[in-house]
């Protein structure tokens, strides 16, 4: 039965995704109508809806519906008893797969059907939120159906826990910081990931350290995120070295000696009352509560707390960015 579904999905519905001949977007609806009829006919005749492929993947029909990007098949299969939390041979559920492909529509559908939003892949410890965060950081958005921020927001609103660490000891927020993706960091912070801003990995690598240790381009292409992390991180997490005494990659060379010294000095200075208040209000007011404050606070104060990020201590990589662009 699963092989029959694979044949239908691959040669009918997914032809337009593979650039096949004879299937245009306009014809997609009629094609799926035929496939849906075949699907319902197979299900009505009592086939094992949770049967797996014989080869190493061990995908179920629901895995295949996600793999071949057939959103209408998801609720049909579930209505006939498909296990929305079935695991493949590597421990991936359909929601893991949908999250990794950033398909917000299928993520939303699977969550409504009871998928476990905090399911963990045994080998890596990754949750669907980890999968979506990593995928969004490395894949450009290809439209509303594959929006990284949209997919992450869907998972968070569906109950995904942003505080779960994977086998590498990293939460989704820490992964987003490592990639230097401000939009993803903002989405995670606004939906409850604020508790992780000072959380360190087993090697005491906090969000700021991971940002500086990630992609070398982070420090000059994501200056806004650097300023935000500097403002939100508590002084101990501003230290420019991890538990083993290793500096982050961005500060390891002589070119950034000045920034390294400023970070070390900043980690030893007490925060001003103004900065402490800003940090406290920002981290304690998520998405819904933040909008309520907009109607209460004067515009200048709201803007200062949520929209203005001036790097403390004069820490900036603008000079380094200029030298990189000139070289």
From TrEMBL:
Cited Pfam families: Ank, Ank_2
ANK repeats: 57-89, 90-119, 124-167, 168-200
Superkingdom, natural source: Eukaryota
SUPFAM superfamilies: Ankyrin repeat
InterPro entries reported for this sequence: Ankyrin_rpt, Ankyrin_rpt-contain_sf, Multifunctional_regulatory
Keywords assigned by UniProt, alphabetized: ANK repeat, Repeat
Stated name of the protein: Uncharacterized protein
């Amino acid at each position: 039965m699963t092989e029959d579904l694979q044949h239908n999905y691959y040669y009918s519905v997914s032809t337009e995704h593979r650039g096949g001949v004879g299937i245009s977007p306009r014809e997609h609806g009629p094609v799926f109508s035929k496939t849906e009829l075949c699907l319902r006919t197979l299900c009505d005749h009592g086939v094992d809806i949770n049967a797996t492929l014989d080869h190493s993947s061990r995908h179920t029909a629901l895995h295949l519906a996600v793999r071949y990007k057939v959103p209408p098949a998801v609720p049909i299969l579930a209505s006939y008893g498909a296990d929305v939390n079935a695991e493949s041979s590597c421990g991936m559920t359909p929601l893991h797969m949908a999250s990794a492909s950033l398909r917000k529509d299928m993520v939303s559908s699977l969550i409504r059907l009871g998928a476990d939003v905090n399911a963990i892949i045994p080998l890596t410890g990754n949750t669907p939120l980890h999968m979506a965060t990593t995928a969004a950081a490395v894949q450009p958005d290809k439209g509303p159906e594959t929006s990284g921020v949209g997919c992450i927001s869907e998972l968070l609103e569906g109950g995904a826990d942003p505080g779960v660490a994977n086998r590498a000891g990293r939460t989704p927020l820490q992964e987003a910081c490592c990639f230097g993706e401000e939009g993803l960091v903002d989405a995670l912070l606004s939906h409850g990931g604020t508790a992780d801003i000072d959380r360190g990995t087993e090697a005491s690598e906090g969000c700021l350290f991971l940002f500086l240790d990630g992609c070398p381009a982070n420090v000059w292409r994501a200056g806004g995120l650097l300023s935000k992390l500097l403002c939100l991180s508590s002084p101990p997490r501003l230290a420019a070295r991890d538990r083993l005494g290793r500096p982050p990659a961005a500060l390891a060379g002589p070119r950034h000696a000045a920034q390294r010294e400023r970070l070390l000095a900043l980690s030893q200075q007490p925060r001003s009352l103004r900065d402490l208040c800003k940090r406290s209000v920002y981290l304690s007011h998520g998405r819904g509560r933040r909008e309520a404050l907009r109607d209460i606070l004067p515009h200048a104060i709201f803007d200062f707390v949520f929209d203005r990020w001036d790097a403390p201590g004069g820490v900036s990589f603008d000079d380094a960015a200029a030298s990189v662009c000139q070289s």
